Amino acid sequence: MEDVIQKRIIANERVIGKLANMVIRFQEMFEENTYAECLEQYTEIINEITGLEIDLNKNDFIEEISEKEYIQTEKQVNELQLKLNKIFEQINLMQEQLNSEKQKKKNREEYNTISKLIEDYPPTSETLV
């Protein structure tokens, strides 16, 4: 955005410089030439000013579009950031669930191992007799 503003300032400075040069040239010509020549030069200056106005309007239009694109891009970035935050929350929740399931599996395996060991021994009713 700053680049656009800097370019616009530079463009405006160029326009102002061109306009100043045209006015100075016209004043010099007005003092030295006939009415017809001055009128011709005046017409050329008006055409140049019109062209400069068009350039300024283009710059305004480009700046407006750039600003809209900047705002739209910021909006999209914010939306993506929100989506990413939700995804990270889901990942963390799933990680917790995975850890819980791993612990359950480990407990189940330990239980099964212990139960197999216990099955290898006779029941206490048989051993006490």
From TrEMBL:
<feature type="coiled-coil region">
    <location>
        <begin position="63"/>
        <end position="104"/>
    </location>
</feature>
<keyword id="KW-0175">Coiled coil</keyword>
<keyword id="KW-0539">Nucleus</keyword>
<dbReference type="GO" id="GO:0006397">
    <property type="term" value="P:mRNA processing"/>
</dbReference>
<dbReference type="InterPro" id="IPR008501">
    <property type="entry name" value="THOC7/Mft1"/>
</dbReference>
<dbReference type="Pfam" id="PF05615">
    <property type="entry name" value="THOC7"/>
</dbReference>
<dbReference type="GO" id="GO:0000445">
    <property type="term" value="C:THO complex part of transcription export complex"/>
</dbReference>
<protein>
    <submittedName>
        <fullName>Tho complex subunit 7</fullName>
    </submittedName>
</protein>
